[in-house]
Amino acid sequence: MADEVGAEGNDLNFFKKDKDSFFLGLSTVTHIDQKARPSYHLAGELASSYTFELALKRYREVNTTYNSALLFFSMTDFLWYTTYAFYLSPHEDEKFDPIGISKSTGISRDAIFFVSLTQSALNALRVYTKKDRLIPYFVVDRYFIGFSVKVPF
Length: 153
Fold this sequence. Notes:
alpha+beta
């Protein structure tokens, strides 16, 4: 995904301490166009959304503990990440994707938190009702990010 937004020298680490911040997962690049930073920051959430869609499909086919756990964590990933970055982390670090998105776009923390909450709530509704009436999704292009809701009919 980093390649899609033109980032160079991508490196991905898990359980990483960087300066005064702790990251469950940390993706860094050596070079990126400043206009592409929001897309780079949202790419991980896009991947998590793909994981949720696959987990939901598998959960509906076979309701195992593994499928349930994968479904839950991929469904709430952005919500937990946003909560941690904005409200729990002792340091404000742009390497936390929600903070990076806010700083590079000017979108308020409250708006980003609301998007994460909406995404999790709509996906929880899909799990609970077993219907896909409202499907939240992210759109990522090199110089554009978006959040939308599909309404199949």
